[in-house]
Amino acid sequence: GGAMCPEGGEPFFQDVTRHRFFNTNNLWVRLDILKQVMDANGGMMPLPMIKNSKTVNPQDSSSSPVFQLETAMGAAVESFTGAGAVVVPRRRFAPVKKCQDLFILRSDAYTVNSAMIPELDASRNGIVPIVSLDSKKYKLVQHLEAATAGGIPSLVQCDRLSVKGLVYMSRKNIFVGSVSIVNSSDEPKVLPAGVYHDTDIDLTDAPGLGPLRPVTEETTPFEGQKPGTSGLRKKTAVFMDGLYLHNFVQSTFTALRDMGINLHGGTLLVGGDGRYYNDTAIQVISKIAVANGVRRILIGKDGLLSTPATSAVLRERVPVWQKAFGAFILTASHNPGGPEEDFGIKYNAGNGGPAPESLTGKIFENTKKIQSIKICSDLPEIAIGEVGVTKIESADGSDAVVVEVIDSVEEHKKLLESVFDFDKIRALVAREDFSMVYDSMHGVQGPYAKAILAEALGVPMESLINAEPKEDFNGGHADPNLTYAKELIEIMGVDKSGNAVLTEEAPPCFGAAADGDADRNMILGQKFFCSPSDSLAVIAAHADVIPYFAQQGGLCSVARSMPTSGAVDLVAKKLNLNLFETPTGWKYFGNVMDSAVVYGKENYGPVLCGEESFGTGSDHIREKDGMWAVLAWLQILAHYNEDPAKEFVHVRDIVLEHWKKFGRNYYCRYDYEGVEKPKAEAFMDHMRAQAESHVGLSMHGYIVASADEFTYCDPIDGSIAKRQGIRRLMTDGSRVVWRLSGTAGAGATIRMYLEKYEQDAEKLELPTAEALKELVDTALEMSNLREMIGMENPTVIT
Questions:
Q1: What CA–CA distance (Å, rounded) separates 504 from 483?
Q2: Could you give the angle at the alpha carbon of 753 between the alpha carbons of 747 and 758, nearest 5°?
Q3: pLDDT tens-digit map of 685-704
Q4: What is the pLDDT of residues 404-461, one digit of tens each?
Q5: Would residue 180 show up in a list of annotated catalytic residues for this protein?
Q6: Could you give the angle at which helices 626-640 and 532-541 cross, rounded to 10 degrees?
Q7: Any residues with CB less than 8 A from the CB of 445 and at least 6 apart, and which?
C-alpha cells in the first residue's frame, strides 16, 4: 500500500477512520466487458502508473537508488463503469505486505482451524496486534527468519510491539500489552527469555554475541564457480584470492536454506585430503557456517577426512539428533596439491552422497549474483590436532557452538568391519607365503591404512608405503595408475603398460594404491596388473564371498559408467543381475542405491558399482571407496587360500580363470591432459559433426557400425543427462569413446577409451597394447585427434 502513497501520505492511508475499506487485489472481471474496455482504448487497459523508489539491489539499501515503474493492477476497478466491491470482514484475511505482517501471522495470535485456514485467536476479539519492526533490519524475509531462528515470540496477549534496531527473538519471549524494544548498537542483541508486560527495553548496552556475532561482508561474484561432477576444482591460488572460497561456501549455505534445509542449530561435517590450504579453508568454512546458524561442527583430526570416510560418518554416526545435514570435503581428488597446484571443495548431502544437480545448479546460480557473505570474524581459531570437544559461547550467554574434532578413521573402520570377514582376511595375512604392499601416495589414506590394514588385520607396517599425508603429496601426483604409482609398480614387477618385467626376487602377492582423497584404487598381483574394469567384473563374480552381499541374499545389481568396459555386463547376464549403464559420476550410482528409500521405486540393493577411472564400491556408503576395493580383493584371496597347505592362488590366477569363463574385454584409456579448452571443445564439436560420415568407414580391419553421443535417461528420477561421451561402435562389437573430463583442475582433459572383446582362449593373455593396436590406429586416424589438439602422445595410458 505504501508504494501508492505520495511522500508523507502513508499515515493518512493507514487511518482506518478515513479509509474503512482496503483493496486486497483480488479481481473478478467479465471477459466480454474487458474486451470492450480494451477495444475502446486501442487494445490496452488504461491502468495508472506507479513510481516506486527502490535500490538497484533490493537486499542492499546502500546500493544505487532507482525508480521502479509499474502499472497498478489493483486500481483497474476504476476502468470499469459500474464496478462494485465485495466487502469482506477483516477477520477473513490477513494481508502480508511487510515482514512485520508475516511476523504476526506466524505467531500464536493466529491459529489454524479445522479447515486449515488461519484465523485470529478467539481471545483477540477480532483485533490484530499492532507490530512495528525496524524496516531496515527486517526488510526481507531472510532477515526476519535469521532474527527469529529460535521461533516466533508469543503475541496472543500483545496489543502493540515496537522493535528498533536488530533484535534476535525466540518462542521463549512472551509479549503482553504494549512492549517497546530498542537496540541502537551496530550489532544484533538477543532478547533474553521471559515475559515482557507493558514495558520498554533498551538492549543497546547489553552484552552481545561476542565470538558468535555474525557480520555481513560485501563481495562480488567470481566467474566459473560451477561445481563439476566432483565439486569445484581450481588452482590453489584461485581459491586463495580474496573471498573466492567464501563466496562458494556462502552460496552453498544459501542454496541449502532455499531448498528447505534447516541450518539453525544444525551439524556440519568438515574435512579434507590434507592438501595445501586445507587447514585454512576449514577455519573459513567454520566461521561462515556459524554465521549461517550451524551450531555443531565435526572436523576430522588434523583436518583429515577421506571422501569415503566422510560418507560413512554422514550415514553411520550417532546419536541421530546430532546427525550432520551435510559435509564440505576439501579435495581435488587425484590432482596434484601444493601452492602452485590444485585445490577443491565439494558438498555432500546428508545421505552421504555428492550434492544432486538440483543443489549444485542452485549453488552455481548463487555464485553468479552473490553480493554479501555472513561470517563470524571473531570466532577463535579451532585447534584440530587433537580429538576432543570445544564449546564456544556467546558473550551474553544466550548461545553456544560445539566443535568436535573426531577420529578420522573410527566410523569408516567400524563400517568396513561389518562389511567384510576380518577374521578370514587376518588368516590370509598370517600365511607365510603371503605378502603385500599398499601405497597411500602421501594422501589422506595413510592413517586409514595403518588402522585397518596394519592394526586390525596384521599387515606389517613396513608394507605400507608413502603412508604419511603431505600437503603436496611429497611432490608427486596422487593418482593410482600405472603412470604415477611408479614406486608401487616397480615393487610389483609391472611396467607402465601393465606388462610383467624381470625382477631380482619375487614381488609381493598383492599390491594396491589409493589416490589423494582415498576413493580410488589400483589393484595389482605379483607381476600382474588388474584393470579397474576387470576388477569390477571379478568382484561381481565373487560377491557371495563378501558377507555384506551374502547376508543380504546376494548381489542384486551392478552399475558401471558408460566408458567402463562391458566385462561386468557378462557377469550380470550370467548371474541374472540388474545392470545399469550410467554417465561418469558417482551420483548416478547413488540414485540406483537410493531408488526405494528416496524415490519409492524398486529396491535394487545390494548394489556393486564401478568406473574405469579406478573407482569401485558398493551401497554401504554413497561414494566410491578405495579401501573397500582392497578389502574386497583380500576377501576373495582369502576365499581361495583358506588352506595354508595348498599352493597360493594369486590375483593373476583368479583373473585368468575369469577370462576363460567369461571372455576378456581388452581395454585401454588414453588421457590427453592440459589441452587448451578451445581446442578440446573444437575437437568434440568436430566429432559430433562427423558422426554421419563415419558410419561405414573402414580402417585397419574395423568397420564403423554406428556413431552417436551417449544420452542417459535416469530410470530412477527421470532426469536426462546429455553429451556424456561420443561413441563409435564397430561391427565386431569393439568400440571407441571420446569424453571431455569434468574433473581437471586446469586446462581440459580429453579421454579416449578403447575396448575389444576376445573369446579365443589362445588370445587371452596378449599385451593390451598389442591386442588394441589396430583399434588405436583406427581411432586416432578417424578422429584426427593429434592434429586438432596439437599433442602427439597421451599424457597417461591406463
A1: 22
A2: 165
A3: 999 999 999 999 999 999 99
A4: 999 999 999 999 999 999 999 999 999 999 999 999 999 999 999 999 999 999 999 9
A5: no
A6: 50
A7: 306, 467, 514, 518, 626, 627
| Residues 278-326 pLDDT 10s | 999 999 999 999 999 999 999 999 999 999 999 999 999 989 999 999 9
User: Quick one: which of 634, 614, 639 has its CA closest to 624?
Assistant: 614
Average pLDDT along the chain: 93
| Alpha-carbon distance values, 281 to 10, 16, 764 (Å) | 49, 56, 50
E strands, 368-506, in order: 372-375, 388-393, 400-406, 436-439, 464-465
**Residue 302 and residue 409: Cα distance in Å, rounded?**
12
Q: Is the peptide bond before 606 cis (omega within 30 degrees of 0)?
A: yes
What CA–CA distance (Å, rounded) separates 556 from 549? 9
Q: What share of the chain is helix, strand, coil (3-state, %, to 5)?
A: 30, 25, 40
Query: For the chain, what percent of residues have pLDDT higher than 90?
Result: 83
CB atoms within 10 A of CB 738: 22
The amino acid present at 148, given as its one-letter code, is: T
Annotated catalytic residue within 333, 408, 463, 734: 333
φ, ψ (nearest 5 deg) of residue 415: -65, -45
Q: Are 540 and 572 in contact (CB under 8 A)?
A: yes
**Secondary structure (3-state) at 397:** coil
Cα-based distances in Å from 485 to 35, 438, 480, 494, 717: 77, 11, 6, 11, 38
How many CA atoms within 13 Å lie on the side-chain side of 741? 24
Reference 537, options 520, 559, 512; nearest CA is 559
String of DSSP letters for 271-307: EE---TTHHHHHHHHHHHHHHTT--EEEEEEEEE--H
* C-alpha cell of residue 149: 531462528
* pLDDT reading at 1 higher than 70: no
Distances (CA, A) of 277 to 201, 223, 258, 274, 671: 46, 21, 29, 8, 28
Taking a C-beta distance cutoff of 8 angstroms, is the pair 358, 256 a contact?
Answer: no
Q: Is 722 exposed, middle or buried (0-12, 13-18, 19+ CB in 10 A)?
A: exposed
Give pLDDT, residue 22: 64
d(CA 748, CA 409): 34
d(CA 310, CA 484): 25
pTM, two decimals, is 0.86
The cell numbers describing 484, all together, are 604415477
- Count H helices and E strands in the chain, helices first: 23, 37
Cβ burial of 706 (10 Å; 0-12, 13-18, 19+) is middle
Rounded Cα distance, 147 and 629, in Å: 48
